[in-house]
Amino acid sequence: MSVVYHHSGLDVLARTLDGVRAQVPPVHATRVLVNDATGTERDAVRSLLGGDGEVVAHDANLGFAGGQNANAAALFAAGADAVLVLNPDVRLAPDAVAGLAAYAAGRAVLAGPLLLGATRPGLDPDGTIDSAGIRWTATARHLDDRQGEPASAAPTQPALVPGLTGACLLVPRAAYERIVAATGELFDQDFFAYREDAELGLRAAVLGVPSYVVPAAAGWHARGSAGTSRTTSAFANSLGVQNRFLIAFKYGRRRPGRPLARAARDIVVVAGVLLRERTSIPGLRTAWRLRGRMREKRRALFGAA
Description:
Blueprint: E1 2-5, H1 10-21, E2 31-34, H2 39-49, E3 54-57, H3 63-77, E4 82-86, E5 90-92, H4 96-104, E6 110-119, E7 124-131, E8 134-136, E9 142-144, E10 159-161, E11 168-172, H5 173-183, H6 196-206, E12 211-221, H7 234-251, H8 259-275, H9 281-289, H10 291-304
Parallel strand pairs: 1-2, 1-4, 2-3, 6-12
Antiparallel strand pairs: 4-11, 5-12, 6-7, 8-9, 10-12
């Protein structure tokens, strides 16, 4: 089990860890990486985890992508058959990990639960769907499928999807080894955070690693962790802009969406940043600076495929 924590609320993390401890059969190993850690926060996370796993604290912020990559590498090196990527604001049903593991056993696939909406801090159900996988729009936006619909309308059968939310995602060893052997990383660390899960779904599919939502496995996800809301965080907005264009440079004409629609949306985003959301200009600059690296990654990816 891999959790990356960054000032997202110890009370919520406690409920997440309660869900991990409740898994039947038990989770073999849990690793919590604390980004941008203070001594007090590091000790508090260790107290919450107790003797049930390992806490690794970093003075710097590795981001979601870098933190999850570090955790996954350590857990697989220690002999894990699969690693569950988990947000510190998701409470899993007691049979969720077993359900995902059974579905993905021996296969090079990515598998995710049906995530339902939850309230903070208790992670109690709010009656809605949070994510039934990722879908792409004609304008190359990625969205959590069926988000906000009534929980009573949730799908009941496993389904092939273009990607899975990074809030909860099972990565079997066969999938991990294929993705890392071909591209050198699980999540693309240049994305830091935001859209890295959607990009993983695209890259995995190119390499013959499909993504499936497994409704028999369930969890509850409460959005709104500190510093993650696109309505309140300039940094989150900037990363969202940056990573839209990193995907554009990385996938070129193979980017999801319709060519004219996504080009029109790109123009709207750039104009909006230059005229109104100027705090996102650093995101545009970073994407432009990394365009060559993204094209190199594209060549490596499609060459491996």
